[in-house]
Amino acid sequence: THQEQHNKHHFFKIILIGDSSVGKSNLLSRFCCNKFTLESSSTIGINFTNKTLKINNNQITAQIWDTSGHTKARAITDAYYRGAKAALLVYDVTKHITFVNIQKWLVDLRNHADPNMVVMLVGNKVDVRQPVVVSSEVGKSFAEKESMCFYETSALRGTNVEKVFMDVVDKLYSNQV
Ligand code: GDP
Ligand code: MG
């Protein structure tokens, strides 16, 4: 009923995936606390941050999971993927290998995750413009080929960070109602 819809509390688990140093932790801290750190502090194991949002007067908790992308940790535990409704697949637009490896992360994701998962391809560090190693066109057409949404972001400047997370939450919300 109308009444029930208004009082629902939605909970969405969203995971961050991608190579080490692409900016996953900074995308999360930019979105959650408007914070950015210059020095890289590699995430130890797995952690998550809750962000509370409102859509149409409904309370949403986005629980965003972060992990280190070190090769040793590549066999990410099932716990990381379990219950995840969306994934942000992040690469660094200034490091080609991180884009190449997206293919591997996608395989991981499709092996572990819910097939209905919302997946966004995110090219981070667009503030670094010399030289453009992975162009927007290349990123965009790969995303289209794999049925993913595509965003280019800068955790440093804040470009598109709010947008990509809000788009994920909007999509998850409209899938539910
Ligand atoms: P993670 O290993 O994927 O979690 O990457 P981090 O968030 O730890 O970031 C790795 C390094 O890249 C750090 O030195 C960050 O300051 C830097 N970094 C992250 N995002 C950006 C960005 O959007 N622009 C620039 N120029 N540097 C970034
Ligand atoms: Mg990290």
SSE class:
alpha/beta
Tally the beta strands: 6
**How do the SSEs run, as a string of H and E?**
HEHEEHEHHEHEH
For the sheet with most strands, the description reads: 6 strands, mixed
Present as ligands are: guanosine-5'-diphosphate, magnesium ion
Could you tell me the radius of gyration in angstroms? 16 Å
What topology, given as strand order, has the largest sheet?
2-3-1-4-5-6
List the uncertain runs. Answer: none
Amount of helix? 25-40%
Number of helices: 7
Q: Roughly how many Å apart are the termini?
A: 11 Å
Our estimate of the beta-strand percent is 25-35%
**Mean pLDDT metric:** 89
Q: Which term fits the overall shape?
A: globular
Describe this structure in words.
- The protein is of the alpha/beta class and 177 residues long.
- Helices cover 35% and strands 28% of the residues.
- It has a six-stranded mixed beta sheet with strand order 2-3-1-4-5-6, with helices on both faces.
- A hairpin with a 2-residue loop joins β2 (46-55) and β3.
- The longest helix is centred in the C-terminal third of the chain and has 16 residues, at 161-176.
- The radius of gyration is 16 Å and the shape is globular.
- The protein starts with a helix and ends with a helix.
- The protein binds guanosine-5'-diphosphate and magnesium ion.
- Guanosine-5'-diphosphate (GDP) binds at residues 20-26, 37-40, 42-43, 69, 124-125, 127-128, 154-156.
